[in-house]
Amino acid sequence: MSTLTIPPVLPTPREDAVKLHKAFKGLGCNTSKVIQILAHRNAEQRSFIQQEYETTFSELLSKRISSELHGHTKLLLAYLSVPRYEGPELDDAIVQQDAQQLYKAGEKRIGTDEKVFIKIFSERSSAHLAAVSSAYRAAFGNTLEKHNPIHLSHEGNKEGNIWKFFEWPLDHTEMCY
């Protein structure tokens, strides 16, 4: 007997905008909630959320994120502002280049060149990032998930869930409105 798995119902852009607004209210910000919402939406969905947020609350979502979040604002803003192609096509040369750049920006140096991670993970498609993950593992014997300096440097940290932005494209799932 086979089992049918039904994907969860994705909230509307309005529901996401309201959840984000609630996450920003009060003392401090519910960083986990903000990341949970934005990390699990594609570029088109995030665009709809931004439009709905601005319409509903008369405020730019990117401006609110800048004022509320500090440590990882650059990545969140890149996710909001950079439209990325989500098609399945891959360019193997760029995949290999990205794997090399991530290695040089992380494991092969003291400290992390976050700009490289932000650029690659905010501009590349989910299919491309999955291919980069495989290329990285083949070239360096490590996985991005386990040996990524951003992940390692934030383990145990309240904002460590920023890694959700990196995990999501690598798990091959897509959720659409």
Brief summary of the model shown:
This protein has 177 residues and is mainly α.
Write structural notes for this entry:
61% of the residues lie in helices and 0% in strands. It has 11 helices and no strands. With 177 residues, the protein is mainly alpha-helical. The chain has helices at residues 13-24, 31-39, 43-57, 61-68, 73-81, 92-105, 114-123, 126-140, 144-147, 149-153, 164-170. The longest helix has 15 residues, at 43-57. The relative contact order is 0.15. α2 (31-39) runs parallel beside α11 (164-170) and α6 runs antiparallel to α7 (114-123). The two termini are 31 Å apart. Residues 151-161 and 170-177 have low confidence and may be disordered.
Topology record:
Blueprint: H1 13-24, H2 31-39, H3 43-57, H4 61-68, H5 73-81, H6 92-105, H7 114-123, H8 126-140, H9 144-147, H10 149-153, H11 164-170
